[in-house]
Amino acid sequence: MAEKNLESKFETHLKDVTFKVLRYSGEGDSTKFEEYKVPVIGGMTVLEGLIYIKENLDNTLSWRASCRMGICGSCGMFINNFPMLACQTQIMDLNSDVIEIKPMPNYPIIKDLVPDLTKLIEKHKSIKPYILRNDNAPEEIEGEFYQGVEELERYEQFTFCIKCGICLAACPTVATAEEFTGPQALAQAYRYSVDTRDQGFDERKEVVDNPLGVFRCHFAGSCSEACPKGVDPALAIQLLKKAIVKDSLFGKKLVHDTKILPIKQENPKKKDNIPPAPPKSVE
Amino acid sequence: MKESKLWSLHIFSGAILLILLGIHMVIMHFDKILHLGDSLAWQSVLTRMQSTAHTVIYLLLLLFAVYHGLYGVRSLIFELNLSKKGRGVVSFIVVIVGLFALIYGAYTIITGHMAKLS
Q: Is the CATH code 3.10.100.10 the one for domain B3-114?
């Protein structure tokens, strides 16, 4: 039955596209391209093509994917020599009968199309990507941080980062300097430092104010061009550079005098029409 | 010194060099157009060397050009993915070369300024 459904699904396919996939066993062997013919239907993504191969042609092919809707950032690949999310890239949009798929550059490869993202995560962690406070931990503060719309807009676009690592794959500086902090972490350093709830600029400055930090960026802008979420890390890097230079030369720190508003309803009255919460299923 | 200060100085020296090199270029290469006489004639060179304004301009030009150039060389060498120790050694060599160039260049300019020639 399932086979019949699959057949009928691909019966009216638009054309056959050759997937040229770079294979690597993960055991130190050399890499080699393998070709697969995939029947393409309207709206089919590269990830769906890979799933078709895995289900019907070669079940040894490996890649990483999860949400299939451009949210989890797992399926970054080098598709026709450009780093993209496989789940966001429609095959027909590539306007090609041959699609070359390689693992993302600038990362060690675990197997086939699976990159090792450890470096990305380490760099991300190094800039302390969370709200830092000098006074109390955020959870100890009683009240609400006031933040205006303009203050939110200063960093909002950088919160769209899904840590897919595509910006590092696109970055020519990362290609030549593995230890460069990279656009993802630098953009997040700016995102948190400019957040009015945060007071950790000095701590993050220690990490990025060095020859392998913000000043290593050559401003090629490839990160911004490749980002599948429309984030502009190159802009964040320049703004971070500006903030650091202002601090170093003029002592003008990115210090936020955040207003903490008291919680208005001390004993909020429960509305009558709200049903009681279900009992806990897990202790 | 923090990288942000070194980088800012590099940018600042670049901006100053635009002005100082502009003055140098005008004097040395636009002399015919601006009717300044022959810039390379012995008497012209001597006049410039003995002039306090020119001496100051050339000392500043030397200072900023040496810093700007050597910071650039250091950045280029850093592109070779050196270790932290390697970067330290390169920075040390760059400072030594810079100090030598500054002292030797300043000596030449000041000697020319002080010399009793006619």
A: no
Q: Residues A229, A84: contact at Cβ < 8 Å?
A: no
Q: Do A220 and A110 reside in the same domain of the chain?
A: no
ipTM over 0.85: no
Please give the residue range of the domain that contains residue A102.
10-115
pLDDT digits (tens, 9 = 90+) for B31-73: 888 877 788 888 888 888 889 999 999 999 999 999 999 999 9
Q: Is A146 in CB contact (< 8 Å) with chain B?
A: no
Which residue among A176, A177, A209 sits closest to B3, beta carbon to beta carbon?
Answer: A209
Cβ distance A177 to B7 less than 8 Å, yes or no, reads: no
Residue (of A153, A149, A188) closest to A168 by Cα position: A188
Q: Which of A89, A115, A141 is the last residue of a domain?
A: A115
> What are the distances in angstroms from CA B82 to CA A107, A123, A176, A182, B52?
20, 19, 11, 17, 44
Please give the interface size between A and B, counted as residue pairs whose CB atoms are below 8 Å apart.
31
| Interface residue A233 vs chain B (CB under 8 A) | no
